[in-house]
What does this fold into?
Amino acid sequence: MLIVGGGIAAYKALELIRQLRAKGASVRCILTAGGAEFVTALSLSSLSGDKVYGDLFNLTDEAEMGHIELSRDADLLVVAPATANLLAKMTSGIADDLATTALLATDKPVLCAPAMNVRMWLHPATQRNVRALRADGVSFVGPDEGDMACGEFGPGRLAEPPAIVEAIGEMLAAGDKARPLAGTRVLVTSGPTHEPIDPVRYLANRSSGKQGHAIAAACARAGAEVVLISGPVALPDPQGVLTIHVETAREMLTATEEALPADVAIFAAAVADWRPDREGDAKIKKTQGAATPDLSLTENPDILATIGARKKARPKLVIGFAAETNDVVANATAKRTRKGADWILANDVSPASGVMGGDLNTIHLVTADGVEDWPRMGKDAVADELAQRIADAIGDRRTAGAVKA
It folds into this structure.
């Protein structure tokens, strides 16, 4: 069931229908009054090969297929574009037209593909609505970042049809059991930080961001609301994840604190331990016979330790990474205690085990209960395993809380 909201991106619903039909899906459409300002019922009907519904009080439609049967006959309800208005109505349980009534009456999974002006998407009211809907089990794909029809730039563009089709396929294939983190807010840091020496040079490390980005994507696939805070990487933003781009360690700490509260915080970023105590205003020139520049360093804030030590709004589960070349487990065990983390994933990056930034990881999970050695595996597999462990831990804590109450 495709619900077409009222935004300029509604025209992409036509291509979405075409791609879904090409994959063998049956598509039935509900066209909102706003959506009808951009696309016609005839266009939707021609591409879907089915009747298009729009009037809640159409006696013929109600007699042939009432709104409750309409909302439950589909395997999945997709809202594309999902406007700020539709998201707000869904959050509040408003049912003042056929689309919102069907969404309120359904017992099937719902996938929203938001599309709106960047300021509308970033507005606290919209973000509250998205969090509430995720907590109710609603899934999201997008929005993407880019140029807007209104002339502005930023997150708010409707995800492209192939990405929506992929999300639909995953939901139909997996069902509810593949969403063990539904209703959970997860914060992930990823990539390196760049600490400027002058306008053209910086201190950094070899982190690619592959592991952190894979974890963010895995948690999103598991149904979590994910905020990814990424240092400079050559990777695309994961689908279904709100990505915040930063450069320095101080910017990453600020973005992390602003993204709280969260149920789980995963610190996969390789944050530079030090930064130059003074950034040059101009490029430092190499001059024949001149002395080597004196590079004095100062310590960066420790993001993991800062969040681990919080008394207020500390995530229920704080997870850090330790990239080590020697005494891997011993160093990671000490780090977990020192930094107030619940778990540490020790990553062996010694020359014998792998190179930092590569595609494989050798992980040791360090918790208060001991150390578990994982087999050497790809970063996507590590991410999926971690997402499942988090789901198990969060589920155990929820159950314990319920029993205690």
